[in-house]
What we know:
- The complex is a heterodimer of chains A (about 350) and B (about 280).
- Helix content of chain A is about 25%, strand content about 35%.
- Chain A contains nine helices and 21 strands.
- In chain A, helix 2 (about 90-100) crosses helix 3 (about 105-120) and helix 2 packs parallel to helix 4.
- Chain A is globular.
- In chain B, a hairpin with a 2-residue loop joins strand 1 and strand 2 (about 70-75).
- Chain B has two domains: about 5-75, no CATH class; about 75-280, Orthogonal Bundle (MetI-like fold), CATH 1.10.3720.
- Chain B is built from 13 helices and four strands.
- With about 280 residues, chain B is mainly α.
- The interface of A and B includes residues 75, 86, 146 and 147 of A.
Amino acid sequence: MSYLVLESLTKRFGRETVLEDASLAVxxxxxxxxxxxxxxxxxxLLRLIAxxxxxxxxxxxxxxxxxxxxxxxxxxxxxxxxxxxLYPHMSAFDNIASPLRxxxxxxxxxxxxxxxxxxxxxIEHVLGHLPRALSNGQKQRTSLARxxxxxxxxxxxxxxxxNVDAKLRYEMRLELPRVLKAFNATVLYVTQDYKExxxxxxRVAVLMGGRFVQVDxxxxxxTRPVSRDVARLFGDPTINLxxxxxxxxxxxxxxxxxxxxAPSGPCVVGIRPEHVEVGMEQxxxxxxxxxxxxxPLNVRxxxxxxxxxxxxxxxxxxxxxxxxxxxxxxxxxxxLRPDDLMLFDAASGARLAPRTH
Amino acid sequence: MTRETPLGRLVRGVLLTIVGLFFLFPIxxxxxxxxxxxxxxxRIPPSLFFSPTLDNYVALISGKxxxxxxxxxxxxxxxxxxxVILSVSSVALSLVLGxxxxxxxxxFRFRLGENIAFTLLSFRFAPPLLVLLPLLLYFRTIGLDNxxxxxxxxYQLITLPLILWIVRGYFEDIxxxxxxxxxxxxxxxFKTFIRIAVPLARPGIAAAxxxxxxxxxxxxxxxxxxxxxxxxxxxVGALAFVTASGIxxxxxxxxxxxxxxxxxxxxxxxxxxxxxxxxxxxxKG
Lengths: 357, 285
């Protein structure tokens, strides 16, 4: 039996159904990232688990105890809010101490635990400050410390890095796994940033249209997305997608035949930008394209290619490779390997190929 | 920001002085009047120079009013006490009833909620006299006329809607997530209300308390009709200064000065929280 179990959760607000039949199981000590497009119900899901909202149907179990309709204070969960939700009239110390005091710990024990978690999160020097005297990064850490301090059964983190600057986000992305491990916390982590999802999750649960469409390890989500929509969520630049028609085990794309193991019929072909090989010489099977733009993006450069019939292809390559293309030179060749192609059903968007799991 | 020229500063100073004089003049004049006899007040032309006397205050505090027609008993100190009892009790009752109600209206959507809130506000719409005469008949029947309890009850018409609507706005401004966070920490809803919602709405509560107190303190017509001499507040009691032998301007002025003191003290005290509210700014955390 898993530690945190969500069973067919359904939540409606008026006529709008936010979650429908969402099920998920999380093991003890595991970090599962809930990822999905904005407005897909990620925050609502956390609030159902925290007890801020009640589900219309379904059940929530923590450590074999059904908590579906318990009040928030009776669930032993910790939650860090996107907007921090610190108590403005209490010092950082009192903010972090709040869940400890609610659990009836002695003053000495409260002080010890607050200092411990504050040291871990490097905010021990600002414990006396009111929230308004804290920087955004310190607020975020205080909010995180408050949720961690009591060692809750389940830790719910609602996009905690959303409101901090890029440098801090990067720092926390590296630091968080260490902190969460120190607490052996069972974590549901909500984010809209796919890199954060990939970096922090043991597994990533993709929430779309009110249900989990795929729960998998980060790498597998990238290479074996269950559907076109999931494929589009991961990767920057996003996957190239083209409508095509499969006929007797092959498709025609940009006037070139590719052998694919797909049933005949309309389909959508996807190719990740890093799988598009761009070269100056014609090679067998290469597609003649125009090089429209090169955008250097730190280590990798993004290339915008145009086929003869005007379709665009995004490709990426190492930046020093991009430097090989002489200025003003537009005619290049793109090679796609059939093995890298993903095929999706045109109607449902479900993955047809590769078939392997 | 534009730099201020010396001329600009001068003009601003003059204008501020004019505004200050305009608003403070009546109060200053009354204050000066309270140290004069009726004779010096009424002389023509009026003058700023007079030999101050404490007679007015002595008369008020001792309750013996000396007029040409003889000594008159006045119950000013008793009236002042009544004012304090009525205003403090009505505001206190309104706070006890109004703050939880305001919280409920701000946080929960319930059937007819908006209508109930509006009905409470509409208490302020009707002209008081329209309500008072029938109310007097009812109060006579059930024995509530000329009692503190009856008056405090009626005073709720003034203080409760005010407190309810002002404080409600402040509760609505508090991010719900702050309260959710406190619940998730392991605290019940009542503790969350006391420890989070009320402290964060304190500037609003202070402002509403002050306003409600001023309105209750200055009320005249409710007490005029529903109370007899021994329960009357200063506003009604002041009528006693219009005596058979003339209007006692000096005593009226002194009474005014004395009756402003409680409101002034409360305002000075509440100011702390009003300023705190400004400096807390948006309570978004």
